[in-house]
Design brief:
With 242 residues, the protein is an alpha/beta fold. It has seven helices and eleven strands. The protein has an eleven-stranded mixed sheet, sandwiched between helices. The N and C termini lie far apart (44 Å).
């Protein structure tokens, strides 16, 4: 691995907020919302990437511009810097654990590690401890963590509380309340009114929100509405285009 990968980015995908190495991102969306496709688009900018794919998914290594591997040991292959780890079912816990621990064991800085199904890794694979460490201490290793989940309930609170960026598709009820408690109260009404494939992006440093969607034809993020920072928690989004 290169000595300072944290300074290297691949794509020029426009983002509504600056996403720097060492900042974590949570991505929430039920099946069919476009969560996986959006994740692949967002991850396109990082040069040193490990995607941990634990569930069947239509997206392939090619969609992530990554090298497909089945064992974490294959991360040693210096011919590649972007990997999609898809271990055999019976080996998932061991291989995912090795990958999550790699930045610490090898003292490597600058990785971006993305988990496709956060709840499954925490609950079924029982790897919540490694997840918590990466989210709470990862910045010292310039480690960027990306957690994909269908619902915000049932996962360690450190995932969203330590995420600089929280991106969510539409939801309602208890899930919307959990999301609002981890971000800002006004997001609860926003996620309840989002259109199909539309998402809200919460940026913690300024408590700003941006609403948009991914254009599948161009691969670009399209803005549909925005919250002014001073109005977060006080009113409705400022409409731009619908």
């Amino acid at each position: 691995m290169a000595s300072s990968p944290r300074a290297q980015q691949r794509s020029s995908l426009w983002l509504p907020f600056t996403w720097q190495q060492g900042e974590h991102l949570s991505l929430i969306g039920e099946t069919g919302t476009g969560k996986s496709t959006l994740m692949a688009a967002l991850l396109s900018q990082w040069s040193y990437l490990i995607v941990l794919q634990t569930k069947a998914d239509k997206l392939t290594a090619a969609d992530y511009s990554a090298h497909l591997i089945k064992r974490a040991q294959q991360l040693d292959d210096t011919h590649y810097s972007r990997f999609l780890l898809r271990p055999a079912y019976r080996e998932q816990r061991r291989e995912v654990a090795i990958a999550l621990d790699r930045p610490w064991k090898h003292n490597e800085k600058g990785w971006t590690i993305a988990v496709d199904e956060e709840f499954y890794v925490e609950d079924n694979l029982r790897l919540g401890g490694l997840i918590e460490r990466n989210f709470t201490q990862g910045r010292s290793h310039f480690l960027t963590n990306v957690a994909g989940m269908q619902r915000p309930s049932g996962i360690t609170r450190f995932v969203m509380s330590q995420s600089t960026h929280v991106v969510s598709f539409g939801m309602e009820g208890r899930d919307a309340k959990v999301l609002s408690e981890a971000t800002t109260a006004s997001i609860q009404d926003v996620v309840d009114q989002l259109g199909r494939h539309e998402f809200v992006w919460f940026y913690r440093p300024t408590r700003s929100m941006w609403i948009g969607r991914l254009d599948l034809k161009t691969g670009r993020l399209i803005e549909t509405a925005r919250f002014a920072p001073e109005r977060v928690g006080r009113g409705a989004p400022l409409p731009l285009q619908r």
